[in-house]
Amino acid sequence: MQKHRSFKNNIIYISLILLSIVIAIVVWSASKSYHASLAQERFDTAANEYVYKIQKHILKYERVLQSGVGFFHGSDSVTRKEWHDFVQALDLEHNYQGIEGLGFAKMIKPNEVEQVERQMREDGFESFSLKPTGKREQYSSILYLEPMHVRNIEAIGYDMFSEPTRRLAMQRARDTAKAIMSKKVTLVQEIDEDIQAGILIYLPLYKKGMKTETIQERRDALLGFVYAPFRMNTLLDSIAMGTSILNFKIYDSQNTSDASLLYKSSNASSHAPKYKAKKTVEINGRKWHIDFSSTESFHDSTDTFYPMLITSMGLLVHFSLLFIILMLIKSRHLLKVQANELLKLSQALEQSPNSIIITNIDGNIEYVNKVFYTTTGYTKDEIIGKNFHSLHSGTIRTKAYDDMWSSLKKGQIWHGEFVNLRKDGTEYIEGVKASPIFQPNGTVSHYVAIKEDITDKKRSEEHIYRLANFDPLTGLANRFQLEGHTEYAIRAAKRNHEKFSVIFLDLDHFKDINDNLGHDAGDALLIELSKRFKSILREVDTVSRLGGDEFVFILPNSNADGALRIAKKLLEIINTPHIYQGNELLVTASIGIAIYPIDGLDQQTLFKNADTAMYEAKNSGRNRYRFFSKKS
């Protein structure tokens, strides 16, 4: 009989040990999976931030091209010296790093080739001739390209229209009137052994006074292109994409072969990445496909001992309880040992990396661990016995608390987020998982909540949102928000048969402030003017800074009278000086106005016409407004 009982006990012991091993494996696997998901989230966030950097910088280069087109439109003819001075004033090396140069390529008919070559030779290029040679139905030639360093001199006279890849991008830019990026090319400037993949961005330049509403009108009016060449390694290095946690490759097609590879951040290694992501970003008419992968540095920064720690803690708790049970089976005199093992369980809870709260069924707090005191600043006497609801900051709707208690009282697990208060009155955001504690008879005796401080994570998400939607200097809407608000205004006006106004505003002689007093003074003036702009607008109106000193206003449900009133107010508040460090900052503005649907039915047309009216105001003496007129 004794042998039978011993055999039976041994079976029980072995079964409990095997069960412990299974539980340890499950706990370890769940913890490891949780921390791997956190690492993946961090990896994806980093990849999205880098995609945003690329888009932001390419948009900056597009602005440079637009300024070049504007420079041509502001003069009857642009000489080589004037183009040199213009590009030198832009200071590409410091303000637009990564761009190889800013050039002008003219479209030439066959009967004009000889005249262009003769003019260029007279202009100082004694051996100038179009290249490559040969007869073609249509020619182009790079006439201006600054700065004139060795690489760019090599490109002067090159007929980009003669090469299929470049020609396709030029034709798309010509027909769409937009800045268009080419596919991967080898630049003419590649004259040494360090040959890099290259791209070009073209912005069409049309003859002044000619209509460009239709594709055929644009083709007839085309004078040439303001364009910029880029060497991809130089471009990406200038965007400061170097990182120790991510590797990435950029392709200009879905076929991720060497033929379409534009850039890779590192050389191949034996390291196998744990995390990967594929992103597609559309830039100036091209789709770039980016393959991100994690580095050893990223793995080192995300590897954590928590899965093993939690498993160890779980095993410690489990074996402690197992030991107590086994001792109780053997003898009641081991109750002292049981108490010691329960103490170990309590220590495990105390050392948990998350806050743990246990309440009775009325929500009154009976236990909190050390992390809770550290997080909230409360002492034991200040919190034990208080109701869980007393931590509520009032920011989260009462309904969230009602939902939690409703789920718990139904015997269900609940998880969500709360904004709670520390003892010093500061708010913090917590992710909460709460569940009922059941007794053997099935009744609920307590509730337990495991809470994690996610304030920093939420702030990071908010920061990324602001980067994507607002101008970092003034806090005004950026181009992305502006385009969304404009499309909404168009739909609303069309649906309600209303009008709305688009106002383009450009500060006059703003560059003088930057040059004379420094960019800090210019930034201070832009911030002050942005506050003034918002003070005279309605809540439904939108003001956006497109970059530099250019602003766009969208005034829903407003006609010409409403736009005129705002334009006059803008001129008035701009003419009020702003004092900065004892200096009186005073500028004026040129304003252009377009009215929907009179001056256009789509965003592109309205913006173009408002911009045209704005330049008309500048040409008329500045410090004034002009409504768009088809005679402009």
Taking all Cα atoms into account, the compactness measure Rg is 34 Å
Question: Structural class, please?
Answer: alpha+beta
Broad CATH class of the largest domain: Alpha Beta
Number of helices: 20
**What composes the largest sheet?**
5 strands, antiparallel
Q: Strand arrangement, largest sheet?
A: 2-1-5-4-3
Number of strands: 21
The CATH topology of the largest domain is given as Beta-Lactamase
Description:
The chain is of the alpha+beta class and 632 residues long. It folds into 4 domains: 302 residues, Beta-Lactamase, CATH 3.30.450; 46 residues; 105 residues, 2-Layer Sandwich (Beta-Lactamase), CATH 3.30.450.20; 158 residues, Alpha-Beta Plaits (2-Layer Sandwich), CATH 3.30.70. Helix content is 46%, strand content 23%. It has 20 helices and 21 strands. The strands form 5 sheets. Strands 2-1-5-4-3 form a 5-stranded antiparallel beta sheet, with helices on both faces. It has a 5-stranded antiparallel beta sheet with strand order 11-10-14-13-12, sandwiched between helices. A hairpin with a 2-residue loop joins strand 8 and strand 9. Helix 1 packs antiparallel against helix 10, helix 10 runs antiparallel to helix 11 and helix 17 packs across helix 18. The longest helix is centred in the N-terminal third of the chain and has 72 residues. The chain starts with a helix and ends in a 5-residue tail after the last strand.
